[in-house]
Amino acid sequence: MVISMSGKTLYDKIWDAHLVSQREDGTSLIYIDRHLIHEVTSPQAFEGLRLAGRLPWRADANFATPDHNIPTTKSERDQGLEGIKDPVSKIQVTTLDNNCDEFNIFELKMTDMRQGIVHVVGPEQGATLPGMSIVCGDSHTSTHGALGALAHGIGTSEVEHVLATQCLMQKKMKNMRVQVNGRLKPGVTAKDMVLAIIGRIGTAGGTGCTIEFAGEAVMALSVEGRMTVCNMAIEAGARAGLIAVDQATIDYIKGRPFAPKGEVWEKAAQAWKSLVSDPDAHFDEVVELEAADIEPQVTWGTSPEMVASINGSIPVISQESDPTKRESIALALKYMGLTGGTNIKDIKLDCIFIGSCTNSRIEDLREAAKVVEGKKVASTIELAMVVPGSGLVKQQAEAEGLDKIFIAAGLEWREPGCSMCLAMNADQLGDGKHCASTSNRNFEGRQGFGGRTHLVSPAMAAAAAIHGHFVDVRELG
Amino acid sequence: MKKFNVEKGLVLPLDRANVDTDFIIPKQFLKSIKRTGFGVNLFDEHRYLDKGEPDSDNSQRPLNPDFVLNQPRYQGCKILLARDNFGCGSSREHAPWALDDYGFRVVIAPSFADIFLNNCFKNGLLPIVIDKETVAEMFQDIEENEGYSLTVDLSEQLITRQDGSTIAFEVDSFRKNCLLNGLDDIGLTLEEADTIKIFEDKWRQTSPWYFTPPSS
Questions:
Q1: Cα gap A414→A409, rounded to integer Å
Q2: How far, in whole angstroms, is CA A332 from its chain's centroid?
């Protein structure tokens, strides 16, 4: 009898390649190729190592940079560590420095010009490679899946586990494919695509799954756009998002500092070409969207699934039949100070934030600069800031004159870090203020106590900066 | 890790879906480099009326009397009941640390976010998935019965109500064993150190490009 065997998904392939051992109940040890580290979720893990008298299993698999607590004004950054005014933040950053020094771990320190948001810096340095297993004590580690790497966010106990054993203890997830057919319309971006996906499947839609984003529209995105999509896989509930490797992936990596060179590069690039799902691979769940249906997206509530098209409106509570959802909408609208039925374009803004591991790469900044060039930020906007994702992104943007465009339009040009995406540093959204933000979470208090976040693409945030309320970026001349 | 066997306690009803980890513990408290002391800032933005900082004297801060955790009938609660997708968002393990530090031993919800679920098991906190309808009934029962408590028996995988009726629950067998015995994951994995080493050597040979040191 011939047993028919279906092919493997990309996730199956990377999982199988990293499987060290498996218990009867499916609990597995997965070998970890790259461990990214930042200052917030690692101190307790290093302390655990010390208390147990353990050393990192393979120090050179680790790559660290501080990002969450880092100040973003030039005057603060010019002072080095002394520029971190909050003593508690400063301790966290110096603790990372000390831990990396003690355990011989590679770190781009705050004063290194290559420092930045760990999910921007990893791919930029070539520390993220196709087919790798990558973890970091940060849920947005899913970003790295854009390069065909299996990348998960983990907790601090797991950070310690990976440091000590180079493995992660895990059960295999289900395979989910989100396929976006056709091409995005002009003015619609990767951010709009992923927000539309989350709007469709919900914030728990990918729970228990690894999502492979596929389809013509996904593969037509630049590698940076793919990172934006995979970054927000976690907002759809999936720990990991993945995109198949193609020539664009390989071209992106070539020549980066930590990428292999010479003969090893040739072999690696050849091997990476197999990092695609087989045509007959089985997916447990498949969701399809038509790219042409996607319009610029704006979130109106306190969960990324609370999203509408720019030409849409906020839902009316009484029209929702599910009682739990009704309650969620009511709580969200109360927190946001908004009324059901309001047009998205009538939402007025106080603040604009362009940055975060979702949208702070050079292409994002180019998109935003194109919209504000030769214009002025509306007088009602209290603060508009652009925070590049890394020192190298900043350098590139300045070489292209983007900083001058932003400054001339009235936006602040900052130093790299996580900044107001989660407001652990001094960049905080005021109580009751509405912010058009290119970040990834609109949770209550996320950008600052009482702050009201609307998630959008860089171009939409830039357009909102000029008009003081949301506008359809496609209608701008 | 501390052991978990049987826990009996008052149930706190947190009637919300998609409770995210920012809600459980706001970011300003993540600056600590310790694992303990987060309990006083659990649900900080809802529990207090002002904005808390790591150096705030929490005993002097105004409590939000409308927030369920502050209501007298729930003082001493050990079991948290919530709606779908509990613990979504940030991977911060500070969320289970805060729940544990406050005194919670069990969280019951119709579904949990993956990373949070994992983090609970690493900290002796038991997350239990119960179907939506039963959770809805429990919310109703709590509303009507002051002092509503449950007994959770991990080895039997049973929740017992005060009237003696029971609800069975599923738990991953490996995690159950770790919780019952307070086993340390790292210690368990290091028992397989030889297997890891063999895997690593082979992997290094077949895929040397993953072993390029970051400093080169």
A1: 14
A2: 23
Name the token pair of A279.
């045509």
Instruction: Kindly give the pairing relationship between strand A62-64 and strand A412-413.
Output: unpaired
Q: Is the dihedral of CA A94, A100, A101, A103 positive or negative?
A: positive
Q: Which of A444, A419, A446, A451 lies closest to A351 in space, CA to CA?
A: A451
pLDDT beyond 60 at A25? yes
Q: What is the ipTM of this complex?
A: 0.95
- pLDDT band per the 50, 70, 90 thresholds, residue A3: low
Task: Give dist(CA A427, CA B66) in Å, integer.
Answer: 30
> How deeply is B183 buried, as exposed, middle or buried, from its count of CB atoms within 10 A (0-12, 13-18, 19+)?
middle
Residues 6+ apart with CB under 8 A from A273: A245, A250
- CA dist., res. A217 & res. A338, Å (int): 33
Please indicate if any CB of chain A lies within 8 Å of the CB of B185: yes
Distance between A75 CA and the closest CA of chain B, angstroms: 23
Is residue A1 pLDDT above 60, yes or no? Answer: no
Cβ-Cβ contacts under 8 Å, A106 against chain B = 213-215
Using 50, 70 and 90 to split pLDDT, how confident is the model at A100? very high
Identify the burial level of B40 via C-beta atoms within 10 angstroms of its C-beta, where 0-12 means exposed, 13-18 middle and 19 or more buried: middle
* Distance separating alpha carbons of residues A420 and A69, to the nearest angstrom: 10
Chain B residues in contact with A450 (beta carbon < 8 A): 51
What is the DSSP code (8-state) at residue B51?
-
Rounded to 10°, the helix A156-165/B114-121 angle is 70
Judge residue B161's burial from the number of C-beta atoms within 10 Å of its C-beta, 0-12 exposed, 13-18 middle, 19 or more buried: middle
Chains A–B, number of C-beta pairs less than 8 Å apart? 202
Contacts of B39 (CB under 8 A, 6+ apart): B98, B100, B101, B102, B103
**A420: Cβ contacts below 8 Å, ≥ 6 apart:** A353, A355, A385, A387, A427, A428, A429, A435, A437, A439, A447, A448
Residue of A nearest to B124 (CA): A157
CB B12 within 8 A of CB B143: no
Q: What does the pLDDT average to over A102-118?
A: 97
First to last CA, chain A: 66
Nearest to B20 by CA among A200, A338, A336, A441: A441
Helix extents (H) in chain B = 21-24, 44-47, 94-102, 114-121, 132-144, 173-181, 185-190, 193-206
Could you tell me which chain B residue has the CA closest to the CA of A163? B186
Residue pLDDT, tens place only, B159-173: 999 999 999 999 999
The packing angle between helices B94-102 and B114-121, to 10°, is 50
Tell me the CA end-to-end span of chain B in Å, nearest whole number: 39
**How are beta strands A434-437 and A351-354 bridged, if at all?**
parallel
